[in-house]
Amino acid sequence: MDLRISTLAERPELQGKLWEMLDLWPEFMRHDPIGWANIGRIVAELPEYVLVATDAGGAVVARGFSVPFRLRAEGRGELPATGWDQVLLWAFSDRRHGRVPDTVSAIEIAVAPGVQGRGVSARMLAAMRDNARRMGFGEVVAPVRPSGKHLEVGAPMREYAFRTREDGLPHDPWLRVHVRAGGVVEAVAPASMTIAHSVERWREWTGLPFDTDGPVEVEGALAPVRCEASSGYAVYVEPNVWVRHRL
Q1: What CATH number did the domain enclosing 159 receive?
Q2: Other C-beta atoms lying within 10 Å of the C-beta of residue 14
Q3: In a domain, 90, yes or no
Q4: Could you please report the per-residue DSSP string of the chain?
Q5: N- to C-terminal Cα distance for the chain?
Q6: What is the total count of domains within the chain?
Q7: Could you tell me if residue 112 is inside a domain?
Q8: What angle, 0 to 180 degrees and rounded to 10, lies between the N-to-C axes of helices 173-180 and 120-134?
């Protein structure tokens, strides 16, 4: 597929089209409060860490967000159990306090529905690695959302993340792309993203009743949503998988 992959800093005129691109994220995934508060800041403040892919006709068909942060700051050092949410908080805290970043974290690679299955995600990952290397970084880390885990909601992520095929590559397709690119599956982030809201809002997002206390399986979720109907709220805690890419 004929693609042109650029940073948003190089092509700022694509900012509007970036947001207009269709994706397949479940509705509830758009309501993580940390993501909601910070994704727009990546585009506005860190355009050199935003990748945009356009096809031969100039349409945006993929996007990639990443952030620089200081992993080896005092009190850190290890990839956090609170994964995706935590690196976003660290990145903008470091920016505010003037800490020099030593690591880039992937935040999102999204591919438009019409071009999925054509190797675009692998090319975006390669471009993200190249972009970090060009800016002088020695590694990229990624709190990966395994693409097949929603088909096995009840499987423990600690088992699923390290499951392999006969050829030694990961069982999960998206983890497999990362490993083929040079990444190493390192750890599970058991509480990578937390989305808590009223049962009324969860009903709007999912079309499910959310009227009984206990776990609820929601389409697109990687783990059951915990419903506390008697108290009027439900909480989704998403596990991700840390993959480390040495550059």
Answers
A1: 3.40.630.30
A2: 22
A3: yes
A4: ---EEEETTT-GGGHHHHHHS-----GGGGG-HHHHHHHHHHHHH-GGGEEEEE-TTS-EEEEEEEEEE-TTSTT--S--TTHHHHHHHHHHHHHHHTPPP-EEEEEEEEE-GGGTTSSHHHHHHHHHHHHHHHTT-SEEEEEE--TTGGGGTTS-HHHHTT-B-TTSSBSSHHHHHHHHTTEEEEEEEEEEEEEEEEHHHHHHHH-----SSEEE--TT-SS-EEEETTTTEEEEEEEEEEEEEE-
A5: 26
A6: 1
A7: yes
A8: 40
Residue 102 lies in a domain: yes
Q: What is the pLDDT along the chain (247 residues), one digit of tens a residue?
A: 899 999 999 999 999 999 999 999 999 999 999 999 999 999 999 999 999 999 999 999 999 999 999 999 999 999 999 999 999 999 999 999 999 999 999 999 999 999 999 999 999 999 999 999 999 999 999 999 999 999 999 999 999 999 999 999 999 999 999 999 999 999 999 999 999 999 999 999 999 999 999 999 999 999 999 999 999 999 999 999 999 999 9
Domain interval for residue 188: 4-194+239-246
**Domain annotation covers residue 219:** no
- Indicate the burial class of 79 (C-beta count within 10 angstroms; 0-12, 13-18, 19 or more): buried
- The reported pTM is 0.96
Triad 177, 140, 244: Cα angle to 5°: 60
